[in-house]
Amino acid sequence: MGRGGKCGICLATDIESTEEYERVINLQVSKETTAASHATWVECHVPSCRTQYVVYDIGSLNVRAKCHYCRSRSKEPAPMVECKQCLNRIIYPVAHRPPSFLTSEFVCPPCTMGHELTTELETTARKLAAENTMSWLVCDVGNPDKVPFTNRSPFHTISTMGTKGFMDRIKLFPPRNSALTQRGKPIRNTDTLITTLQDLVAGRKTEKVYCSLCFSTFWPASLNPACGRRGCLQRICTGCLRGWYGSNTSGCIINTAALACPFCRRLPTPRTLAKYGMGLHAVRDLHRALVDKGTWIYAWCSECFTAKELVERSCARGMPPEVTDWKCPRCIERLEVERLEAERRAIQQALDDARAAEDLERQQDVEGRRRAVEETLEASRLAAIKRCPGCDTMCERVAGCGHITCPIPGCHTDWCYFCGKEFPQGAIYKHMSYAHGGMYGDDWVNSE
């Protein structure tokens, strides 16, 4: 409760209109709401705070949660109470606490409802030391405020401290007064964790872990997050990362299943895909391959570096053909034009050489070749463009059959792309079957 017995909504200064105020006041509230109704709990992400509170406007929570006191950088700490069972911190304003309230006996609502409030996390001694210092792992009795071991070699450490009384000064796993923390929260099985680490140290060995994808054993530092997304705790080896995200290569069919994490099925972080995706993160229109994965098979054009439609999916078609160094039709057309242009320039250079040598016969021959190539080049450019017989609009067929329906408003003429003639919609397929080499002419007649 704020100043003058008002809530935070009534004290807020960023509500611009009466309609917005009414929306906020009535959000997630109804006459049917009781003490047993469900609520949305969030936790402040500031490690030194980590207090939990209820959020009503869930749709506006577009960033990591941060409580009012951390957001406004209040000099006063949040009025939190620690649950004696789960040790979570709950914001509980003093004005709302009953007179008989005891902080030491507080049990939070989630514990009262019987929810599971602990979670398992994998950690390392290095991560624990970064947050809890090295005091729980090793202590110098002669100088307890200084960490005896750094990144220097043991020889350097012992030489600096001196060999006399060294074993008496150094204490491994000294007694501690509180539990270790991870991301600001207490570790409930601190004693078990330290006992496991003591056994490893006493046995002079380290523990290997399994790659979650190939199940081979590796040192923990050799494994990497499978996708880098928060909440996905699977770790896999570098070979599996490259084999999974790098399975899509330039000029080949795009395997959309390998674009997502093999475990949580979310898209990997850009950093992960850029490191192991063999350039896949820079492919243009890659999102279309995911959107249309149920209807089209896409391939990675090796020329324009774009995901393009290769073949339409069909359950009766079977596996698509293997392709290598695949190029989309537009790139093939462009390369052909470039080849013809290069040939034209070469012929022009030969013509110039012939003129310089005053070789009339050679000049005439080269001139004829040049005109032929230019005519072929011009024909290749214009062959794909034809005029609509209804509105004279120039049209180019990109894909599909020869039945063209003019898209110009007010026209919509049905005509044959092969000969340019207009036909009624019911007769055009029969015409294409008989006039242009189709196979089902009789079927069109019978169907009519």
UniProtKB/TrEMBL annotation:
Keywords: Metal-binding, Repeat, Transferase, Ubl conjugation pathway, Zinc, Zinc-finger. This is RING-type domain-containing protein. CDD domains: UDM1_RNF168. Residues 207-440, 211-265 form the RING-type domain. GO terms for molecular function: ubiquitin-protein transferase activity; zinc ion binding. GO terms for biological process: protein ubiquitination. Pfam families: Rcat_RNF216.
